[in-house]
Specification:
single chain; alpha/beta; Rossmann fold; 5 strands; globular
């Protein structure tokens, strides 16, 4: 039975491909979703890919991931930098949590440099554009395999 994997996307990511393409690229979120789901299936992960512009919805989804004992890949976008309810919900998770950012947030101006989510993430992937999602899927698969070997 495939391990559940939630891929959660925060605010404005539904506008990828149109929003600041010189910064975020021209790949759409739908294209990222297709690639991510394909790789997840190859790695025996049941991928549930979602996007919201609403903080409370994101919190609900994180709680759902907790209830399903899912691993999580999250691109919290603007919720990264000051959203304590999202941080608190992420603290519930028992499986790997990988934070993804399309840009290298450490090279960005304030307020885009310090993610609260990083405090609880298993790992952070930033600066590789859409490829970051695929790197995150592989990282989750490796972490889950390690969990099984050491259990």
């Amino acid at each position: 039975m495939p391990q559940p994997l939630f891929v959660l996307n925060g605010s404005n990511l539904n506008m990828l491909g149109q929003r600041e393409p010189t910064l975020y690229g021209t790949t759409t979120l739908a294209e990222i979703q297709q690639r991510t789901e394909r790789l997840a299936a190859e790695l025996d992960l049941a991928c549930d890919f979602r996007q919201t512009n609403h903080e409370g919805v994101l919190v609900d989804w994180i709680q759902e991931a907790f209830a399903r004992d899912a691993a999580v890949i999250i691109n919290p976008a603007g919720f990264s930098f000051g959203c304590v309810p999202v941080l608190d919900a992420l603290k519930l998770l028992r499986r790997p949590l990988v934070e993804v950012h399309l840009t290298n947030i450490h090279q960005r101006p304030a307020p885009y440099t310090h993610s609260l989510v990083s405090q609880v993430a298993t790992g952070v992937i930033c600066g590789f554009g859409a490829t970051g999602y695929l790197l995150a899927v592989r990282a989750v698969a490796d972490a889950l395999a390690h969990e099984r070997r050491t259990a």
